């Protein structure tokens, strides 16, 4: 049986999801700032997202405050007028909220791999995301002539307005397009890694959590169509509050999931912290590994059959390392520097021009593996 009043359900779901999304942001910032010590531009965007998400939640509360979730015929004309005003505000700000979430995701992708093609695709997707935001804003601000007809249609019987279904559906379709691009963008790079299939699936599963937001976006189109055909606008907007909360907060949790997983690994003893000797994503280790200039020079090996040899280098590896570290060390033939009091295994490695590919592969895997460990 349908609820006659959706407000209690809308309040309960929106508040619960908002708290979960906000908590994920704080956990991300704590993990990046104090555990991994790898605070970056994507984390700055996460701070901005915290403010944006709070404003978005206030707008949803204003919807409910003025009567959304209650049947339209039970509301006063003033309440309906206020709902129309806040509907326009939400229309504009909702697009911006999604833009911020996607930019935070894409800034995170920039840390995953230094491969030029991947970086180029990330920047192109950022541009596409921005272009779609501008298109959606133009649709919102130019939907009626004169502009006041959006809020007082009864005062402008001769107003020219776009088809409401177009205004409702096109932004959602553009949103889904960018969501799908962001989901599939890292898949080829991850799948080329020389790691176990199980680990590849684990990396993709963390990224793919955002697919839940895409599915919810598809459900939102159904509610938008109901909003187009129904005269009970206030009641349908009560459903929209629920769907909007689900879509936005799941997307926010997807953005923060890699870092939250790193915190979980530390709590259960399965992850690495900044001082544990984990590779790549602590400042200490990141400055020590994977660059040819950081290796200790040694003597040239005699009688080597390698061509284009540039010399040999002394490389050390901790005996005690994570499975991912050891796997990557084996693939590239190098290891991280040891810490005091730890057993080190030292190897002379001849570096040739052909080894650039191996080092590049290591750097690429370092970034992508960090999804699992909380880049």
From TrEMBL:
Does the entry feature the keyword Transmembrane, yes or no? yes
**Annotated stretches, region: Disordered:** 279-317
Q: Where in the cell is it found?
A: Membrane
Pfam families recorded for this chain? Fung_rhodopsin
- How does the protein's chain sit in the membrane according to the entry? Multi-pass membrane protein
Residues that span the membrane, as ranges = 12-31, 43-64, 92-110, 122-142, 162-191, 203-227, 233-257
Q: What is its main location?
A: membrane
Xref: InterPro entries: Rhodopsin_dom_fungi, SAT4-like
Q: Could you give one GO CC term from the UniProt record? A: membrane
Q: Does the keyword Glycoprotein apply?
A: no
Q: Which keywords describe this protein according to UniProt?
A: Membrane, Transmembrane, Transmembrane helix
Rhodopsin domain: residues covered: 27-265
Q: Which family does it belong to?
A: Belongs to the SAT4 family.
Q: Which PANTHER family does the record associate with it?
A: INTEGRAL MEMBRANE PROTEIN-RELATED, PTH11-LIKE INTEGRAL MEMBRANE PROTEIN (AFU_ORTHOLOGUE AFUA_5G11245)
Query: What is this protein's record name?
Result: Rhodopsin domain-containing protein
């Amino acid at each position: 049986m349908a609820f006659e009043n959706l407000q209690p359900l809308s309040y309960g779901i929106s508040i619960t999801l908002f708290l979960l999304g906000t908590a994920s942001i704080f956990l991300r910032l704590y993990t990046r700032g104090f555990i991994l010590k790898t605070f970056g531009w994507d984390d700055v965007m996460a701070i901005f997202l915290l403010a944006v998400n709070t404003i978005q939640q206030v707008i949803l509360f204003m919807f409910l405050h003025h009567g959304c979730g209650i049947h339209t015929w039970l509301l006063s004309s003033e309440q309906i007028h206020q709902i129309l005003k806040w509907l326009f505000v939400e229309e504009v700000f909702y697009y911006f909220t999604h833009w911020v979430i996607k930019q935070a995701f894409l800034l995170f992708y920039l840390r995953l791999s230094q491969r030029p093609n991947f970086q180029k695709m990330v920047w192109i997707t950022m541009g596409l995301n921005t272009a779609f935001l501008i298109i959606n804003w133009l649709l919102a601000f130019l939907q009626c002539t004169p502009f006041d007809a959006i809020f007082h249609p009864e005062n402008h019987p001769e107003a020219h307005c776009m088809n409401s279904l177009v205004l409702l559906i096109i932004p959602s379709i553009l949103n889904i397009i960018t969501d799908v691009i962001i989901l599939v963008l890292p898949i080829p790079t991850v799948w080329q890694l020389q790691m176990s299939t199980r680990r590849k699936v684990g990396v993709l599963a963390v990224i793919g959590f955002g697919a839940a937001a895409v599915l919810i976006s598809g459900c939102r189109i159904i509610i938008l169509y109901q909003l187009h055909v129904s005269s009970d606008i206030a009641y349908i907007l009560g459903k929209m509050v629920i769907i909007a909360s689900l879509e936005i907060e799941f997307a926010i949790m997807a953005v923060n999931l890699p870092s939250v997983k790193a915190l979980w690994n530390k709590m259960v003893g399965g992850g690495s912290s900044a001082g544990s000797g984990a590779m790549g994503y602590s400042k200490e280790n990141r400055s020590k590994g994977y660059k040819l200039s950081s290796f200790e020079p040694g003597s040239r090996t005699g009688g080597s059959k390698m061509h284009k040899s540039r010399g040999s280098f002394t490389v050390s590896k901790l005996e005690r390392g994570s499975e991912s570290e050891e796997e990557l060390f084996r693939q590239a033939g190098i290891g991280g520097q040891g810490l005091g009091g730890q057993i080190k295994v030292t190897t002379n490695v001849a570096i040739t021009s052909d080894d650039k590919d191996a080092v590049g592969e290591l750097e690429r895997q370092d970034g992508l593996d960090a999804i699992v460990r909380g880049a």
